Please model this.
Amino acid sequence: MILEWIGDAVLLLGVLPVVVYLLIGVLRAANRILPSVQQIAATAQAASKDLDATALLLTTQDHVQKTVEVVAGYGGSLDTIIDDA
Model:
């Protein structure tokens, strides 16, 4: 019975303060991470707004292709006009 009381005292006086000290260290580290996480979230949100315009790239590619076709048609006409001159 006395050994149980001694074991309980060692546990309370020796192990428990170490566990509390380690938990406080983990809590401090977690609190230091929070501002960084908030900055990352704000940056990611701003970056996602930049990506909203990517859907317009499909229409832009279509317009570029049509423009190149029209310009190529003018180039063919110029070849015909220059050859005749």
Helices lie at 2-50, 56-84.
